[in-house]
Structure formats: C-alpha cells, structure tokens
Design a protein that fits this description.
single chain, 357 residues, mainly alpha, two-stranded antiparallel sheet, 9 strands, 37% helix, globular, signal
Length: 357
C-alpha cells in the first residue's frame, strides 16, 4: 500500500508541475515575485525573514533541525483519542503541550519563532509547517519539501502521548504512527530520515547538541549507516534513558533508532537507504507531504511549494567513519548484503556537537 500511495503522489506531483507550466502567474504586490496563486505572495516576505532572522542566512544549523522537529511534534498530535494534527496547537497551547515529556525542550524553537509569527499574517499551523520545509531547503542533499496554506488555527491542545519517545518499543512506535495517519511500517522508516540532520539536547542532558550522525549539516545517508554500527545499550538510568552508546565518539543514538534498524519488520527498509541518496530524497518528500497535512483535507489547502527554494545538491557517497569497516556492522537484513563502502582516511575522531543558535 505504501508504494501505491507513493506512486499516486508522484503522479499527482507530475501533473501539478505540468499544470503549473500552463498556469498564468500573477504579479505579487512586492513588485519582485510572481506566483501561480496570489495567496502565496505573502510567503516570499516570510521566507526572507526566516532565512535572515532564524536560519542565519541559509545555514543548516540547530534552528533548522528544531524547526523540522516542531513540524512533526505538532502534526503527530492526532489519532483515535483526539487531536487536530498539523494545526499549530503545540504553539497555541504551549503551556500545556510543552509540559508533555516527549516535547521537552521544544519550547525553545516555539519561542524563537514567536516574533516572526507575530510579524506575518499566517495561521500558526501554516507557519510551523512552512518554516520546517523552508529550513530543510538549506541542507545540502535535501529534497524540496512542499508548503501548503489554509490550515485553521487549533481550538484545543493535542492530547498527551501522541509523540513516540526514544525508549518506546518498536510495536508501540508502529502502532502510534498507524493510529495517527495510517502510516505503514516502511513509512515510519521514511519519517526517520529526518534524523539525518538531528541532534539531541535532553535525551542525555550531559552532552547537549549531540548529533545523530557524523554529518548533521548535510541531508545524506550517513545516519542509516552509522546506526547499524555495533553499539552498547545503556541500562536505562535517568540521565540517558532511551540512548544507545554509539561506537563513534560524540554521537548519540536513540534506542528507538537502534531497535528499528534491527527489527525484522523494518531492518531491510532501513538498510536500503545506505548510500542511496535518490531514494532518501524521494521517500522523505513523500512522507513529509503526508505528515504536513494531517488533520486536513489537502483539497482545501493552497499549494505554495514554489516559494521553497531548491536545496543545494549533494553528490557524495556514504563512507565508514575513520577506523570503521564492514566488520563493525551489526547487520539485521537477511535478504540483502550490506553495501561495501570506503572508509574515511585518518585516525578515529570524535563528532563535534551542533553549536547552539
């Protein structure tokens, strides 16, 4: 079903591109830009404001990582027990939702975005999803993500326990995604592509800004390689609950990522992304498109994806960090051999933390 959905999405996307070429563009009031829908014109000023005043003039840094995280934590707030999905509730009802354990630390990016929300005439849900899609466009190797307008503001907070946590079981995580938006097992893996540019401050508070892979400023496949290196489970103490000790110094690994990379239901899909940049881009664009409209009828939204810039290209290959080889892989996919990759030259080094914004 996931692949049928992806094929349908790609067919619609191709049709949209073809239709856009035949659509007469309108001049925006700024006298500079044009758009296929006049409602999208206001996003050009927001785009420039975000790039200059939140994303450090186009860097793929901490505020980009946190803005992408915010899109998910807001959108996943939906399911059989309530919630409105991608409706801005996490910021509108900040005092309630940021107190949920899974949302620890997310108040920081909400508060950084607040002045920009106040300067632009968008609903909070539209703002959060646009900021996340725009931020990712700063990351080399990323797909160009969609942006839609028309989500009404939330009228109630999402319930607790909608956001999966690092110490949740694979069964629990798969069930939560299925309940939130009928996400298939492989689509859960696709969603975790976002961890290629992720870092953690509070999973283990003794090591803030710790990245999930060795290239947190690049949207590449290193995350799927490095999570399959042999690691050690912590005993689950209060300071590092949900963490697995990565063999690569300075890198954090979530227990949930470790488990999904090794579970029989997800291991082969996980491994399939190693050194497959095209698939990485394609699948994340598809699953983000599905996530960003949770709780809404896409036919009621305006497609303003043209405002999102094309991300910088990345044409490199996945490589083992210095000192590691195929012998260090804990392979869990029995159906397909693990790719043979080169190893970076030099001595074993520690991954630097992501600097704060």
């Amino acid at each position: 079903m996931a692949f049928k959905a992806l094929a349908a999405f790609l067919s619609v996307a191709a049709l949209q591109v073809a239709n856009a070429a035949l659509t007469r563009r309108v001049a925006c009031p700024d006298g500079i830009n044009t758009a296929t829908n006049a409602a999208c014109c206001s996003l050009f000023a927001l785009r420039d404001d975000l790039q200059q005043n939140l994303f450090d003039n186009g860097e793929c840094g901490e505020d980009v990582h946190e803005s992408l995280r915010l899109t998910f934590h807001d959108a996943i707030g939906i399911g059989s027990f309530g919630g409105g999905g991608a409706d801005g509730s996490i910021a509108i009802f900040e005092d309630i939702e940021t107190a949920f354990h899974a949302n620890a630390g997310i108040d920081e990016i909400i508060n950084e975005q607040k002045p920009l929300v106040a300067r632009h005439n968008l609903t909070v849900g539209d703002f959060i999803q646009f900021a996340g899609a725009l931020g990712v466009s700063n990351c080399p190797g990323a797909p160009r993500l969609p942006a839609f307008l028309g989500r009404p503001n939330a009228v109630a907070p999402a319930p607790d326990k909608t956001v999966p946590e690092p110490f949740d079981s694979v069964d629990s995580i798969l069930a939560r995604f299925a309940d939130a938006g009928n996400f298939s097992t492989v689509e859960v893996v696709w969603m975790l592509i976002s961890h290629t540019i992720a870092a953690a401050d509070l999973v283990d508070p003794t090591i803030p800004g710790t990245p999930f892979d060795s290239t947190p400023g690049r949207f590449d496949t290193q995350f799927f390689l490095e999570t399959q290196l042999k690691g050690t489970l912590f005993p689950g103490t209060a300071g590092n609950q949900g963490e697995v000790q990565s063999p690569l110094g300075g890198e954090i690994r979530l227990q949930s990522d470790h488990d999904l990379a090794r579970d029989s239901r997800t291991a082969c899909e996980w491994q399939s992304f190693v050194n497959n940049q095209a698939k990485l881009q394609n699948r994340f664009q598809a699953v983000f498109t599905k996530m960003t409209v949770l709780g809404h009828n896409p036919d009621d939204l305006i497609d303003c994806s043209e405002v999102i810039p094309e991300p910088p290209a990345f044409t490199g290959s996945a490589t083992f960090p210095a000192g590691f080889t195929n012998d260090d892989v804990e392979q869990a996919c029995a159906a397909t051999p693990f790719p043979t990759l080169a190893t970076d030259p030099g001595p074993v080094t520690s991954v630097a933390p992501v600097p704060p914004s």
